[in-house]
Amino acid sequence: MGIPALPFSKLMETVSKPLGNKHVKEPKTLGEKLRNRRLELGLFQKDVAEILGVCTDTVTNWENNKTEPQIELYPEIIKLLG
Question: Cα(11)–Cα(80) distance, rounded to whole angstroms?
Answer without folding.
Answer: 35
